[in-house]
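Researcher: Let's do a round of design. I'm pasting the structure tokens now; please hold your answer until I've finished.
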């Protein structure tokens, strides 16, 4: 393959072009060319516009590469573009073909913005059956990221760009949110890498760039007398009766507030007295069965008698097609005089775990399974596959009875 870059129609000047010479070139009645050297020349149009061109030969054919217009493309930049084209020719690559490929890649990159890739990632999460809470958090985090770089091609987003967004959250003291936002943005990038849209995840370099939040456990009452006082306050709660029942079931069954709020009647077997929570609603994505003690069954019957026979046990006050608001239970505790530093809706689980373990009556594994906790040690988890169901049924009855005793002041 023969490669030739010298122009045949212009003589290479003894003195190459200079910025002053190019600037002073005037238009004529017809377009004309002034050569620099090694195939580079400037075309002066009738309008006075000046355009850099590079003439070369490849596979025996003469071709022309349009570099760009002066003065946007300076003499130095034009020579650099000429040298890059010559390097491509040395490798047997047509500079025009390379230019078209770069243009195609740029257009493709514009179609793969962070916002569009994030939407695809969210769609993937929905198909995987992620919980409503997880999807909501993903949407919230992506909204924060999209404000700053949602319209940018994901392949052009750098670690400093992401860090700038994270700092906006961190400066407000929301350290935990900043860390979760970094993780969520990283998930989108890893999805893009796996899809062949991006090459790297820039959030990896930011692991140690943010202030680490101090872990604060959710407030919970673990003193028996104080818990009994709380149960009496719930009995005398003057708000919605349905909220009072939800709080009592939360205390008796020791499940997560979100699982209580989103509970549906179809999940309850009142004959065998089992609440079967599907994996899609569980934090650990595993089906979870909860034994129903006598006190829980009575509360459920009370709820039915009150006319709560729709899909949800605890529907929203605005529409029965949606569950109770996530703020309702904590707001009820605040109305009863318990601050967020004293007790939270989630804290009933810690109350159950602490007092059940302190009783010494129950296998710790049964207590953990009652809470739907998963053993972190893989080897131990492999040997602890049993549900401890029989013991958990007895544990549930004991806990419900224990709460009654505390409520009575015993």
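Researcher: That's everything. Go ahead.
Model: Designed sequence:
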């Amino acid at each position: 393959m023969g490669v030739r870059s010298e122009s045949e129609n212009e003589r290479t000047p003894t003195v190459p072009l200079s910025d002053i010479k190019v600037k002073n070139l005037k238009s004529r009645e017809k377009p004309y060319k002034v050569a620099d050297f090694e195939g580079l020349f400037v075309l002066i149009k009738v309008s006075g516009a000046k355009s850099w061109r590079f003439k070369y030969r490849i596979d025996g054919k003469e071709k022309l590469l349009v570099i760009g217009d002066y003065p946007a493309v300076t003499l130095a930049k034009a020579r650099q573009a000429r040298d890059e084209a010559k390097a491509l020719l040395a490798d047997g690559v047509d500079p025009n073909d390379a230019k078209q490929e770069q243009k195609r890649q740029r257009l493709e990159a514009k179609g793969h913005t962070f916002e569009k890739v994030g939407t695809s990632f969210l769609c993937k999460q929905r198909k995987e059956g992620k919980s409503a809470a997880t999807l909501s958090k993903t949407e919230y985090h992506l909204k924060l990221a999209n404000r700053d770089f949602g319209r940018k091609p994901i392949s052009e987003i750098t670690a400093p760009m992401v860090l700038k967004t994270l700092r906006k959250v961190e400066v407000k003291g929301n350290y935990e949110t900043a860390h979760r936002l970094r993780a969520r943005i990283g998930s989108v990038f890893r999805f893009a890498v796996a899809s062949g849209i991006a090459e790297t995840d820039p959030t990896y370099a930011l692991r140690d760039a943010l202030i680490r939040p101090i872990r604060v456990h959710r407030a919970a009452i673990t003193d028996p007398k104080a818990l009994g006082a709380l149960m009496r306050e719930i009995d005398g709660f003057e708000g919605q009766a349905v909220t009072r029942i939800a709080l009592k079931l939360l205390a008796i069954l020791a499940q997560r507030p979100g699982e209580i709020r989103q509970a549906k009647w179809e999940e309850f077997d009142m004959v065998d007295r089992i609440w079967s929570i599907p994996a899609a609603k569980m934090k650990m994505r595993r089906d979870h069965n909860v034994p129903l003690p006598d006190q829980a069954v009575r509360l459920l019957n009370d709820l039915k008698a009150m006319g709560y026979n729709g899909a949800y046990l605890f529907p929203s006050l605005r529409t029965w097609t949606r569950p109770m608001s996530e703020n309702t239970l904590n707001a009820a505790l605040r109305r009863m005089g318990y601050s967020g530093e004293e007790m939270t809706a989630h804290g009933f689980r810690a109350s159950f775990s602490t007092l059940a373990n302190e009783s010494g009556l129950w296998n710790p594994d049964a207590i953990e399974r009652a809470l739907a906790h998963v053993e972190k040690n893989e080897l131990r988890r492999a040997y602890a596959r049993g549900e401890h169901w029989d013991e958990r049924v007895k544990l549930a009855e004991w806990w419900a009875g224990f709460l009654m005793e505390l409520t009575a002041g015993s």
